[in-house]
């Protein structure tokens, strides 16, 4: 396995180039939390169960991500500040296929 690079723009508009491991079964929300790119208690509130939308982000790069699950789709249907490129970070697994991914964290709801 290998590490990948992800570009994450935080809620203050600051872009961070982060390195994420592909061998730890992490998701994007967990990477954001591990790098402390969002205030504690404002992201991943439900623990990654696609039940709160606190980890909503906007996909800015052209990556082919796995199709959205029904749970993720339903949660985004109820969330604030949803855009066409919105996804839940907890539903995006860190894999080599997303190397170079660029995301912007959605505003805190």
Please give a structural write-up:
Keywords: 2Fe-2S, Iron, Iron-sulfur, Metal-binding. This protein starts with a strand and ends with a strand. Strand 1 and strand 2 (15-21) form a beta hairpin. The chain has two helices and five strands. The protein has 109 residues and is α+β, with helices and mostly antiparallel strands. The longest helix is centred in the last third of the chain and has 9 residues, at 70-78. It is globular.
So what's the overall shape? globular
Quote the distance from N terminus to C terminus. 36 Å
Order of helices and strands: EEHEHEE
Radius of gyration equals 13 Å
Q: What kind of sheet is the major sheet?
A: 5 strands, mixed
Indicate the mean pLDDT. 96
Q: Percent range for helical residues?
A: 10-25%
Question: From the structure provided, what is the oligomeric state, counting identical versus distinct chains?
Answer: single chain
**Unreliably modeled segments:** none
Total count of helical runs of at least 4 residues: 2
- The strand line-up of the biggest sheet is 2-1-5-3-4
Percent of sequence in beta strands: 15-25%
Give the class from helix and strand content and strand pairing: alpha+beta
Number of beta strands: 5
